[in-house]
Write a structure and sequence with these properties.
The complex is a heterodimer of chains A (about 525) and B (about 675). Chain A is an all-alpha fold and about 525 residues long. Chain A has one domain (about 20-525). Chain A has helices at about 1-10, 30-45, 50-75, 90-110, 135-140, 150-165, 170-185, 195-225, 230-240, 245-265, 270-280, 280-305, 310-335, 340-360, 365-390, 405-410, 410-425, 430-445, 450-475, 490-510, 510-520; strands at about 80, 85-90, 390, 395, 485. In chain A, the strands form two sheets. Chain A has a three-stranded antiparallel β-sheet. In chain B, a hairpin with a 2-residue loop joins β2 (about 90-100) and β3. At the A-B interface, α8, α10, α11, α13 and α18 of A face β2, α23 and α24 of B.
């Protein structure tokens, strides 16, 4: 745990001697399991033969995530700060960690799918082969795949779990990097359209590094102001008047930019469509669902705990960002011709809706946002999973014109996708409705009614492009050389099934999860 | 459905007003009341999702689900009887659907004296009709689908009567409408069936709007749709007279639509296009009586408003006359039975319109009618089955010897409906007529005489039907292109008919003699109270019998002693009233002129308005947003440098805004 020790150095620098803080291993057991899983995954890469790895790695990842999830369930009542207060194990942390792990489980199913086409996986056989070179066409039909994806996913999940638990800005930054770096690599692993995938990875990396720099810069300003990176101590410092707070506000803004980039809020969203489109679809699904949870978890923690006292100052900015995000997401999605890009803009719009919930700045906003993240994640994973199933000889049929008449040729799949789109649009009896209801309700009770009005208008615009796809699928003639829906991809079906079932269940009987989110939110963030 | 049902004590409705309505929280076997609904729902799900794989045994699954639901209903009912009479309203909270501050929508069930008897009627008759359908639909390729819809109907109907608030009732109300629609158009390749289904759907919409508005009114006034709160507020005089009358009239509109009452009666006879078991179950015994249930359930509301009750009375009286007059003119056996249903429900409306004196009588007639009308429909189904789907009674005759079981069971139902003592219709109908007279004043006499007249005409048209079907000379032949070979139906069909016949014999006396049912229902619909008889009950009974015998004699002379023509006489040879009755008393013509044509013009106008004005605005907006989208899209250049620049710009904006806010 060298990272922790260096944190202690940073946190306790005012003290003379360095003491190794006590570590409550049981409370961080889910984290340890996932980190352990990642390391074991690397060892498997080194010592197990390639064909065996294709089986061992997904099984290992699935079991590891499941074990970690059980761990978070067992810890559910724990409220504590650990390791010299660097980590906060509380209701929101555990709720989000559990959510991230569930999304991780579904994503493992999608990545492990090997029946998408004759060649197998959606992931590349060998990422290092130059696109267009002699070997690259052979690579498309190779049975091999880069099984390193699994340990990369495990690292990313571990980073996300650490990100939502971090009670200290420096640790949070480290977690941000742990979660981001594997994602940059994963984005470049698509089997088809290699150039697009590599471009996506490159863009994501460059812009991610750019945003990390903002985050770090903000961190430095905050440290300069408060003399600490502990969230609680920053809040205390901000509450005491008397010194120039320019540094503080600079820090708030720059840290905010780091988060806004990660959740895909405008005007920091421009990477989203390109990366979502270029990445392998299972990875896109994972990114869209899990990264959003992690980034929102950390954003909520920092702005509620450290900057909670300044909420009247950052609220107007948050309003602006939320409005811009919703408008950009909803409006730009209208003219998209690629289904993955459309879903990417939809993700941006949803980030805006989530910010609306946060703009209420109350406990309802916290529980509503957490509920929304769960509903959105399941629906999104299922939607991307469906996208991965509709294929032509060239790979996924991502152009919308190819989806014409899908309702005629594969009614069940098209029906499920239509249901998921309705959920994303927020139609009642889907989880999308209950989720929107929860965040909008929170925003209204937090005196953000005008924001809710904008959100409703944007929902209406958004409904247009979701429904347009449904119309396209069910009321157009299928083209003669239309895409083929892959038969019997059981793992992907399982993911689609789980996602759609949860979407329906949370639309009809949302109460248990709402209660859970409320319980997690009412005890609030520990400091 | 969540099996882990949290049962909670519901807040008593308006306790400051003497605790007018209070439901006990469910415990023990009552916590299982959700099973009643889930069992048939599961049956429907298995049959619909299982697809062709369940074709072979699907009807058994459906029947088993219905029977299981009946057993659960019976257990719950016995437990209900075992409770203290003041403590028989048991409410179970299933889950909160939308718990947001003041906007609380819970899903919960209420087992009380009223819903208890309905559960038995629905599941009991329902199970019998499932069994009957095994035989009736044996050769239909869509039998599995048929059973799936029937199970769906049972679940919806149970949801309707078991809901503990108006929203759950409304959900059930719409779902029975859906199942009814699906079953009317079960043979959708017949244009008549498809048209009838649409007609039923449209006319029900009119009623449903009334119900929906009533619920909105309640929510706006009381702030809740729970029976406890609404009835507590109504009984506690917390709702103004105007509002409560409006609510009652809107509820009545809903009831009229569902129950085929004037002026929304025209869909019910057409609904006979559905398979006969459906006519028995949905369009005679259960769903169409939902209107009566609604009014009886809302007794605390109707008790507060004399005006609305008068409207109920008038509608009941008008409908019962319309129904039996038209019933005399049709030759289609199912149409006659359908108008008979319209007319009998008119009696029930008349009864519940009489207020506390009549609620229990209306329900008693409803239950008795449930038995004998289901029995009559099943009997007619048996005849239709035997006669190769011939429904014209003029082509029947002399079936008595060939179908003895059908003859006897149908005969018992027939004796029950014309009100011959000691069959069940006698007790229930006689009581209604008696209570109508006892209302007092001129109006009492008017309603009494109408009801009396109705009894006579009922005896006439039912005798006509019975004689034309089973007696006289056969007006069919065993040879030629139209050859018929009537035969008795299989056991699966006759056994339910026999059981229902037993019910038609015994039910009425059981409910009425000694005031069993009115005592039982008193906690829900109010005490019966002392009646002030304007005519002594003995006189009324005698009058009823005389009138009924008169009706019977008229039909007997006309149809038994004189030969019946195998082809209906032309309009020019019959009276004007018959011509009018043959045209449903011009209800369809009226609907067409008053609603359909203007509706079509309105639609045309709206279509024009929609396409030119609204679409213009929408297209304009869409084009505007689309244009904006196209322009904004250019910012998405694909170059990292542009993206980074936009991020930098955004950062400057965010930080600048924060500093500005702080400065300001």
């Amino acid at each position: 745990m060298s990272a922790t020790e260096s944190l202690v150095l940073a946190a306790g620098s005012s003290g003379g001697s360095i003491q190794v803080p006590p570590v409550e291993y049981s409370s961080i057991s889910p984290l340890l399991i996932v980190f352990g899983l990642a390391f074991v995954g690397i060892l498997v890469e080194a010592f197990v033969s390639a064909p065996a790895r294709r089986v061992v790695q997904p099984v290992l990842a699935f079991l590891g995530f499941a074990a970690a999830f059980v761990g978070t369930v067992l810890l559910h009542a724990r409220r504590d700060t650990l390791v010299a207060d660097a980590l906060a194990i509380d209701g929101p942390t555990l709720f989000m960690q559990g959510t991230i792990l569930l999304f991780g489980l579904l994503a493992v199913l999608l990545v492990a799918e090997r029946r998408l086409e004759s060649s197998g996986s959606a992931l590349v056989a060998s990422a290092a082969v130059t696109p267009g070179s002699a070997g690259s066409t052979a690579m498309q039909t190779s049975r091999h795949m880069q099984t390193e994806a699994y340990p990369l996913m495990a690292f990313s999940v571990a980073g996300m779990m650490l990100f939502v638990a971090a009670n200290n800005l420096l640790l949070m930054f480290v977690a941000l990097e742990i979660l981001s770096l594997p994602l940059y690599l994963l984005a470049g692993l698509a089997r088809r359209r290699r150039l697009l995938s590599q471009e996506a990875a490159m863009k994501y990396f460059l812009l991610g590094a750019f945003s990390s720099a903002f985050f770090l810069y903000g961190l430095a300003f905050i440290y300069g102001y408060a003399g600490s990176v502990q969230l609680g101590e920053i809040a205390d410092a901000a509450a005491t008047a008397g010194k120039s707070d320019t540094f503080l506000y600079l820090g708030v803004g720059l840290l905010g930019v780091g988060f806004f980039f990660k959740i895909g809020a405008a005007p920091f969203h421009s990477w989203t469509p390109d990366v979502y489109q270029g990445s392998p679809t299972p990875v896109t699904a994972f990114m869209a669902a899990a990264t959003k949870v992690a980034a929102f978890g950390a954003l909520l923690r920092v702005f509620y705990v450290a900057f909670g006292g300044l909420r009247w100052d950052w609220r107007p900015v948050l309003w602006g960002v939320a409005i811009l995000t919703m408008v950009v997401g909803a409006v730009l999605a209208l003219t998209q011709r690629d289904i993955k890009r459309m879903l990417a803009y939809s993700a941006i719009a949803h980030a805006g809706f989530l910010l609306v919930g946060m703009a209420g700045t109350n406990a309802d906003g916290l529980s509503g946002s957490m509920f929304y993240l769960v509903t959105y994640g399941f629906t999104t994973i299922a939607a991307f999973a469906v996208v991965s199933l509709v294929r032509t000889g060239e790979g996924e049929a991502s152009d919308l014109s190819q989806w014409q008449g899908l309702g005629r040729t594969s009614p069940v799949l098209a029906g499920i996708f239509a249901f998921l789109l309705l959920a994303l649009a927020g139609i009642p009896l889907t989880s999308g409705f209950t989720g929107k209801f929860a965040v909008f309700q929170a925003a209204i009770s937090g005196d953000a009614t005008p924001l809710v009005v904008v959100a409703l208008v944007c929902s209406a615009i958004a409904a247009f492009f979701y429904v347009r796809v449904i119309v396209l699928m069910f009321f157009s003639e299928p083209p003669t050389d239309g895409p083929v829906v892959v038969t019997r991809p059981s793992l992907t079906y399982a993911a689609v099934g789980v996602g759609a079932a949860v979407t329906l269940l949370l639309g009809v009987v949302p109460q248990p999860l709402l209660d859970l989110a409320n319980t997690a939110a009412t005890s609030g963030f520990v400091r | 459905m969540t099996p882990g049902l949290a049962t909670t004590v519901l807040a008593a409705g308006a306790p400051e007003h003497g605790g007018a309505v209070h439901y006990t929280a469910a415990s023990g076997v009552f916590e299982l009341s959700w099973l009643l609904i889930v069992l048939p729902l599961a049956g429907a799900a298995v049959l619909l999702l299982g697809g062709k794989r369940t074709d072979r045994f699907g009807h058994w699954v459906g029947t088993l689900a219905a029977a299981a639901s009946f057993v659960v209903g019976l257990v719950i009912f016995i437990a209900l009887v075992g409770r203290d009479s003041s403590d028989r309203a048991v409410s179970s909270h299933l889950f909160a659907w939308m718990p947001v501050n003041s906007f609380q929508v819970d899903v919960g069930l209420l087992v009380d004296q009223l819903s208890g008897v309905f559960v038995l009627l629905i599941t009991g008759v329902g199970t019998l009709i499932h069994v009957y359908s095994i035989g009736y639909m044996a050769h239909d390729p869509g039998r599995r689908r048929f059973f799936a819809y029937m199970n769906l109907f049972l679940a919806s109907m149970l949801l309707l009567v078991l809901g503990n608030n108006f929203l759950v009732l409304y959900a059930g109300w719409e779902l029975v409408g859906l199942s009814s629609y699906l079953l009317i158009k079960f043979w959708e390749y017949r244009p008549a069936a498809a048209t009838a289904a649409n007609k039923a759907f449209y006319m029900n919409r009119v009623g449903d709007v009334g119900l929906a508005l009533a619920i909105m009114f309640m929510f706006a006034t009381v702030g809740s749709t729970n029976y406890e709160d609404v009835f507590g507020a109504a009984a506690g005089d917390m709702i103004g007279y105007g509002t409560i009358t409006a609510v009652a009239l809107l509820l009545l509109l809903g009831a009229c639509g569902k129950s085929g009452q004037f002026p929304l009666q025209a869909w019910l006879p057409d609904a006979m296009e559905g398979p006969t078991p459906i006519s028995a179950l949905i369009h005679a015994a259960t769903m169409v009586t939902a209107g009566v249930y609604l009014i009886a359930r809302c007794a605390p509301i109707f008790n507060e408003t004399q005006a609305a009750r008068t409207v109920v009375l008038i509608i009941g009286a008008v409908t019962l006359l319309i129904g039996c007059v038209i019933g005399c003119a049709y030759d289609d056996i199912k149409k006659v039975l359908a108008y008979s249903t319209v007319s009998q429900i008119g009696y029930m409306f008349l009864a519940v319109g009489l207020g506390p004196a009549g609620y229990a009588l209306g329900i008693a007639h409803l239950l008795a009618h449930g038995f004998f009308k289901a029995g009559l429909f099943l009997g007619s189904g048996s005849v239709i089955h035997a006669m190769n789907d011939e429904q014209d009674m003029r082509r029947y005759g002399g079936l008595r010897r060939l179908m003895p079981v059908t003859w006897v069971t149908f005969g018992l139902g027939y004796l029950a409906i014309i009100g011959l003592p000691p069959f069940s219709g006698f007790f229930t109908k006689d009581k209604i007529i008696e209570t109508a007279f006892a209302k007092g004043g001129t109006s009492g006499y008017i309603y009494g005489i109408v009801a009396l007249l109705g009894a006579g005409i009922t005896a006439f048209y039912m005798t006509r039907l019975f004689v034309m079907t089973f007696h006289g000379r056969p007006r069919w032949s065993t040879e030629g292109a139209d050859a018929k070979h009537p035969h008795e139906s299989p056991l699966s069909m006759t056994v339910p008919m026999i059981l229902l016949a037993v019910g038609s014999v015994a039910a009425g006396g059981l409910f009425i003699v000694g005031g069993t049912l009115s005592d039982w229902l008193a906690p829900v619909v109010g005490e019966h109270g002392e009646a002030h008889h304007t005519l002594s009950p003995a006189v009324v009974t005698a009058l009823t019998l005389v009138v009924s015998v008169g009706g019977f004699a008229g039909a007997f002379l006309r149809y038994q002693l004189r030969p019946v023509a195998a082809v209906a006489p032309a309009d020019s040879e019959v009276s004007l009233l018959t011509v009018a009755a043959r045209r449903d008393l011009y209800a369809n013509t009226f609907n067409e002129v008053a609603f359909m044509r203007p509706g079509q013009y309105l639609t045309r106008f709206l279509v024009w308005f929609d396409s030119v004005v609204i679409d213009g605005v929408v297209r304009g907006t869409a084009a505007g947003i689309g244009g904006l989208s196209g322009r904004l899209r250019r910012a998405q250049t694909g170059y990292v440098r542009t993206y980074a620049l936009s991020m930098l710009g955004g950062t400057i904006l965010v930080v600048g805004a924060l500093l500005l806010v702080r400065a300001g």
